[in-house]
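With this grant's support, we have paired protein sequences with backbone structure tokens. One protein thus recorded is set out beneath this paragraph:

_____
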Amino acid sequence: HTVPGPVFDRFAVAAKRHRTNLVFSLYEKKGSVRLVGSYIVDRKGKLIGRYYKTHCPVGEDTGGLSRGEELPLFDTDFARVAMQVCIETAFPEMTRIYAAGGAEIIFMPSWGANVIDVRARARENGVYCVTAGFDVPSLIVAPDGEVIASTWKDHGDGVATAAIDLSKRFCGPYVGNFAEYVRRLRRPDLYGRLSQR
């Protein structure tokens, strides 16, 4: 597909008609390069964010898909957001970089992903994670790792919805807000060094 193009335009029209922000993924062709793109369209049907999948699993890499090289953040009218696609939910480094940049919600459109990974990424970083899945449930996961809405094939009406308050603090026993606590303890200067004895 090309973006903008006929398929993209259908999503843009739907976003405008329903006055909603919309996140979706397509295979995109840019010149001779094929990528998996993920897009954010605003309530007026305008493209406001584009991310290219940076981690291609076996099959995609040998099938001619290229990898993206950037981890962008997008400021929308409701939150600062980022995107990870499918297998990328297995890479905690990505989510951590986004959270460090101020992401509040990470959208994770997925053919297949691991629910445990999605919940862990939310809890580790204190962010909402939202999946739209084919072979994995569509989920809204709170910053404490709890699933607050879900649906899947033959379960529910196909739409997972929840009202969220981005100012809410998620506190637990002993440490309070886990994500903030871990951020204070984190030692990035140490993580690149391995000691061999």
